Amino acid sequence: MTFFNACIFFIGGTIFGSFINVLVLRYNTGLSFVSGRSKCFSCGKTLHSHELIPLFSFIFLGGKCSACKSTISYQYPLVEFITGVLFVLTFLRFGITSALPFYLVIVSTLVAISVYDLKHMIIPDGMVFFFDAVAFIFLLASHQFNVLSMPTLLDFWSGLILFAFFAFLWLISAGKWMGFGDAKLALGIGWFLGFYLGISAIMLAFWIGATVSLLILGLQRLNISRFGLTMKSEIPFAPFIILGFFLEFFIGWNLFIIMHIVQ
Fold first, then answer.
1. What burial letters (b/e) apply to 107-146, b meaning 16+ CB within 10 Å?
2. Nearest alpha-carbon partner for 159 in 126, 179, 134, 177
3. How far is CA 5 from CA 13, 88, 90, 99, 100, in A?
4. Total-model pTM
5. 113-123: per-residue pLDDT in tens?
6. Continuous segment of H or E residues that includes residue 256
7. Are 169 and 205 in contact (CB under 8 A)?
8. Residue 251: helix, strand or coil by DSSP?
9. At CA 121, angle to CA 119 and CA 123, rounded to 5?
C-alpha cells in the first residue's frame, strides 16, 4: 500500500511540476497560466494532449517538437521529476495527515520560486508573498498561537529575525550581496521551520552556495566548466535557501545541537 501511494504521489507531483513549468514561463508575461492552450515557443504549434504528459511526452518526442524539431528545454522533465520526488518524500516523511496539503503547497511553491530565480535572477513577489502567507497560516494552525507561549513566540520572531538579517545584508551592500527577495523568502522559512531549524536551513544555504561556487570556479580554472563565473558574478541565492529548507524539512538537522555534540 505504501508503494502504491508513493506512485500516486509521484504521478501527482509530476503533474504539479508540469503546471509549475507553465507558471514559470507565463508569470509576468500577460499570459494566463490557468487557461490557454500550450504551444511550441519556436513554431507556435498548439500541443495536443499526448504531447503534454509529464515526463513521458519528452521521452517519446525525443526532446524535440514534433512539428519544427526544435529542442525542448530539459527544464520541463527535470522540474516534473524533481517535484514528483519531493511529493513522494513529503508523503513518506509525514504520511497522510491533515497537514499534508499545506506541505505539498509549500513544496510546489518553493520549486516554482527556485526555478523562476534560476531562469530570471529574481524572486517574484506574488510567489514569495504566497509562500509567506501559507507559512504564517501554518504557524498559527500548527502551534495554536498563544501570546503567552514562549516557543510559539520564538517561532514567530524567527521569521522576522531571518528577514532582518537578509534585509540588513541587502541594505548595507546596496543589493550587491543579496537581493531583497531573499529577505522575503527567509521570512516564510523562519515561520514554517521555526527558530532553530530556520537558522540551520540558512546556514546550510550559505555553506552549500559557497561550496558550489568554489567548485565551479575550480572547474573553470581547469577549463572543465563553461559557466563563466567570476568572483563578481551574480548568483541566484534562492535555490540554495530552498535546498537548505528541504534538508531541514525532510531531515530536521538542528545544527546548534550537532555543533554542541561535536564540541
1. bbbbbbbbbbbeeeeebbeebbebbbebbbebbeeeeeee
2. 134
3. 12, 9, 12, 17, 13
4. 0.86
5. 999 999 988 99
6. helix 255-262
7. no
8. coil
9. 100
